[in-house]
Amino acid sequence: MPAATRTFTARHVQLTRAALAAVAAVMITFSPDHSASVGLAVFAGFALSTGLVQLLAAIIVHPSGHRWPSVIIAAVSFAAGMFGGIPALRSEGLFFTLVIAWAAATGLVELIAGIRSKGTDGARDAMLVGGLGLLLALLLALVPAGFVQESVLAGGVTSTLTSIIIGVGLFGGYAAIVAVFLGIAGLTPGTKRTADAETGTDADRLAEHGGHA
Q1: 77: closest CA among 50, 111, 43?
Q2: Are 24 and 103 in contact (CB under 8 A)?
Q3: How far apart are CA 150 and CA 121, in angstroms?
Q4: How many domains does the chain have?
Q5: Could you report the per-residue pLDDT of 30-46, keeping only the tens digit for each?
Q6: What are the pLDDT digits (tens) for 71-95?
Q7: Cα 190 vs. chain centroid, distance in angstroms?
Q8: Which of 8-12, 152-156, 180-184 holds the top average pLDDT?
Q9: Which of 165, 46, 164, 59 is nearest to 106 (CA)?
Q10: In a domain, 213, yes or no
Q11: Which residues of 8-35 are buried (b: 16+ CB within 10 A; e: fewer)?
Q12: Of the ranges 38-52, 116-130, 141-155, which one carries the lowest mean pLDDT score?
């Protein structure tokens, strides 16, 4: 299939991931409840949908031999999303354990993939998003367990800051940054190298089928 007629490309992957991250960020930002239940519900939806996009990218977009990052990220995201989607299991401990494990694993894979493809289009994006994932894992790991801090606001209103509120807020911030960055990356005009890579992808597929369309 000619590159010009393909309906799902690397740019679409970036834009779709940006949209999913934006939805997660908005849901957390405008929710008055930053409990573990809400945080895990949003994370589960984000992880499952991200896993689906990565799976489609592995099947449709990436050439043979370059699919392993998307396959691993999809598998990890599906597993994390399914665990987070079970209401009976939702707790503060599960939120931190699940999100830290997901962010560390997917961030490391994407960072390594970006480094290995350094010098090609998309490498810088992968390294930055991977680095953000590792940063999220680190920041969540540094949140003190059982942290509670009460403060009195203007008018005598009492506000309570807890570890789970911080954790859910950090995930929302991560999603917002990823949404902005991938959105810009997806809307940035591609270069000749991108076109060549996509042409190469189709050439690889033709070769796999014996050179027949």
Answers
A1: 50
A2: no
A3: 48
A4: 1
A5: 998 899 999 999 999 99
A6: 999 999 999 999 999 999 999 999 9
A7: 22
A8: 180-184
A9: 46
A10: no
A11: ebbbbbbbbbbbbbbbbbebbeeeeebb
A12: 141-155
The one-letter code for the residue type at 196 is D
Neighbours of 133 (CB within 10 A): 23
Per DSSP, what are the bridge partners of residue 159? 151
Which structural domain, as residue segments, surrounds residue 128? Answer: 3-208
* Greater pLDDT, 163 or 155: 163
Residue spans of beta strands (DSSP E) within the chain: 148-152, 158-162
| pLDDT above 70 for 99 | yes
pLDDT in tens, 170-204: 999 999 999 999 999 888 865 444 433 443 444 34
Interatomic CA distance for residues 58 and 29, integer angstroms: 31
Residue 37 lies in a domain: yes
Structure tokens at 197: 């890579």
3-state DSSP call for residue 51?
Answer: helix
Q: Residue 4, SS3? A: helix
Report helix angle 10-29 to 163-187, nearest 10: 150
Residue 84 is assigned to a structural domain of this protein: yes
Task: Examine residue 80 and state whether it is found in any structural domain, yes or no.
Answer: yes
Alpha-carbon dihedral sign for residues 184, 165, 93, 45: negative
H helix intervals, 117-162 = 123-142
